[in-house]
Each structure stands twice: as structure tokens, then as C-alpha cells.
Design a protein that fits this description.
There is one protein chain. By secondary structure, the protein is of the alpha+beta class. Helix content is 34%, strand content 29%. It is built from 8 helices and 15 strands. Helix 4 links the parallel strand 11 and strand 12. The longest helix is centred in the N-terminal third of the chain and has 20 residues. The chain is globular and about 50 Å long.
Length: 264
Amino acid sequence: MALTSPTMTVMTAAVRKASRKLSRDFGEVENLQVSKKGPADFVTAADLAAEKVLREELERARPGYSFLLEEGGVIKGTDATHRWIIDPLDGTTNFMHAIPHFAISVALERNGVIVAGVVYNPVTNELYTAERGRGAYINDRRLRVSSRTNLTECLFATGLPFHGKAHHESTLSEVGAVMTMAAGVRRFGAASLDLAYVAAGRFDGYWERDLAPWDIAAGILLVREAGGMVSDFVGRDNSLKSGEILATNGVVHDRFRTLLAGGR
């Protein structure tokens, strides 16, 4: 059983409340109000509504905390030591196409360190939670990364850059290198859930670049609290700043990092 702290109670309540409109709108693609932010990068009315609920709920429970929001940007509070990092709808393209693989991601940062994280897929009702030093859970079941040691048995996930973005060719080369050695590669389109799947032992590793802090903050803590390892592509603990992430079960981390480097 997960030990529920007051902070985690606040976070999970906010996430579940924000998910209600997402659940109602899911599948109603033709009725969504959509504005285009850029190539293959959309924001929906549901996305904005979920972010509004999250901000209001967290602000009421923890007044003064700062925010880093995907849509709303930086909001500085009176408490400079705490910051919420929020993606109200990770996997927007999946959501718009009625693919049930998207999530709300919320992390709490204290003095620059992620201390709590929640990733929630309302369609599957899978609630991933983690607190620093207290383990990671899916609903009330403890999470553990996989124990696979042979790369040929490992399943990896990644994200492919949208057309016109940097690193397209290098990512495809990396995918080719991994596919020659691993059991398979998946591209599901929601970084927070890719990391949650690593924490749950479903994926043995995940890599991607050009990510924002709200894409990965909660997921990084999930993987580490489930016993895994997270770094950037050169092995540093710098993913939130660099936007590069390599998350594995830990056992294959160095070998996988070497494999990716050879594919570039």
C-alpha cells in the first residue's frame, strides 16, 4: 500500500478533478475546439480547462507556490522554494485522434529537486505516484523496474521528432541501431507515460530529446523511485535543463547509452 502524505493527497485530488473534463471530451474529436500552435503541436479547449483546474486546486491547497505550466508559462509565487511543474494533457495528438494513451503530469519541485510526482491516464484509470525516498506506485501497487539484463530481450520506447524539427535523422539512426540489438522499439507519443512504463517494468528503457520539464519531471521521479536510472545522453543528471533523457532499469543503462551513441 502507498503511504499517502498530505502533499500526495492534494496532488492526486487535483489531478482527478482535472481529468473529469478530459474524460468527457475524449473521443468527441469533432466537437473539440482546437487552435494550432505549430507543426503537429495542438492545444485544445480541454487542455486549457484541465490546466486551469490544476492551478486553482493546487493554489488553494498550497498558496504561494510557484508554477511552471505548459500553456500558462512561469507564474512566480511568494514561496520561491516550491514549484509545481504541470503538463495538463501529455499526448494531445493521441487525445485528438481518440487514442486512449494520454496523461496529466504534475511534479512538485523543492529547492530545485523533484520531491513528488503524479502521472494519470484517466481512460485506463492508472494513477502513477512517487515521492522522493518513499517509492513509486501504480494505484496502490508498488512499482519496480524490470530486471532484464540482455539487450536482445529488452523493449525500448522513444519519441520521433515532428517533421521539420531538429535531430530527425539522428533519432532515426538511433532507432535503427536499437532495432538491431533489442526485442523492439515503441513510439507511443506521451513522454510521461513512457517513463511511467519504465517504472512499471513494461519498458526496459526510453530515450528522447528536445523535451520540456513538464514532459518529464514527474516521470523522472517515478523511474528513480522504482529503482531505475535516469540521465542525459552523456550520463549527467541534467535532463530537466538539457531536454535529453535516457531512462532505463539501471542494469542496461551504460550499454544502452553506448548503443545509442554508436547509432548517431
